[in-house]
Amino acid sequence: METVNEKDKILELLRQIAAGTLTPDDALSRLQTLPFEDIGFAKLDLHRGLRQGVVETIYGGGKTPQQIVAIVLKMRERGLRNILVTRIAQEAVDALLTAEVPLVHHPLPRLALALPETPARLAGCVVVASGGTSDLSVCEEAALTCEALGNRVERLYDVGVSGLHRLLAQQETLTQARVVIVVAGMEGALASVVGGLVSCPVIAVPTSVGYGASFGGVAALLAMLNSCASGVAVVNIDNGYGAGVLASRINTMKSES
Question: What residues are paired with 206 via a beta bridge?
């Protein structure tokens, strides 16, 4: 295993600052590219929190339980907490618990939070709205990601366009949101409807829910991309995590402004 010796690099930066040959701002700029650690099968981005404000998330799909455990243990060794593991299988959950890693597991969205700590609470609210109950796994991936990053989340589930009165009854909640995440399959029309009701950004998440002609979410994706409502952005099919991170960044910017 080859390890990047970030301690020596940081120490050298500090010496340059002390000598007056490097400004603190320049040193911070250099630190934002350091460090990573090579553990053979993965290169851990240990300073992602410095660059992006959030530690690296582990995508569990395609990784063995042993690989996930090794990554989490190394991140814990380096002092990182609140580590999201997305698309995690039960076998990996069991392996983490066997390794005595504190863990909060949510089976429906296949999401886990390793080494949980209460994050700093952001002002404002993110609303997550779903077209139907079949979309809930993606909704919860988005909502729980937002919450893990310090956002308050309001859930408006099963408010699809086939019963529009269910959504209209929630207009007060919608108009108070700083960001709305809209999760829908089938024809994906809910994003346009919500986009026409609110002044905040709308993040549309197409899901793979639907019959044959939905083409595994492609129909909803194209409908959302072609939304006639202004201020609607679209992430990939079933990508609740990506929507949650984007919503949190928008809310963070609004909270800091």
Answer: 184
Beta bridge partners of 179: 126
Res 4: pLDDT: 38
Give the model's pLDDT for residue 1: 26
In sequence order, the β-bridge partners of residue 17 are none
104: amino acid identity, one letter? V
- One DSSP character per residue, the chain reads --B--HHHHHHHHHHHHHHTSS-HHHHHHHHTT--EEE-SS-EEETTHHHHHSSPPPEE-TT--HHHHHHHHHHHHHTT---EEEES--HHHHHHHHHTT--EEEETTTTEEEES--PPPPPSSEEEEEESSGGGHHHHHHHHHHHHHTT-EEEEE-S--GGGHHHHHTTHHHHHT-SEEEEEE-TT-THHHHHHTT-SS-EEEEE-S-S-GGGGGGHHHHHHHHT-SSTTEEE--TT-HHHHHHHHHHHHHHHHH-
The crossing angle, in degrees rounded to 10, of helices 6-19 and 24-31 is 170
> Which pLDDT value is given to residue 235?
97
pLDDT of residue 190: 95
**Nearest Cα to Cα of residue 157 among 146, 145, 147, 142:** 142
Question: What is the block-wise mean pLDDT of the chain (257 residues), using blocks of 10 residues?
Answer: 49 86 81 72 80 86 95 88 94 96 96 89 92 94 95 93 88 93 94 94 96 94 94 96 95 78
Query: What is the set of domains in the chain, with CATH numbers?
Result: 22-114 (no CATH), 125-256 (3.40.50.1970)
pTM for this prediction: 0.84
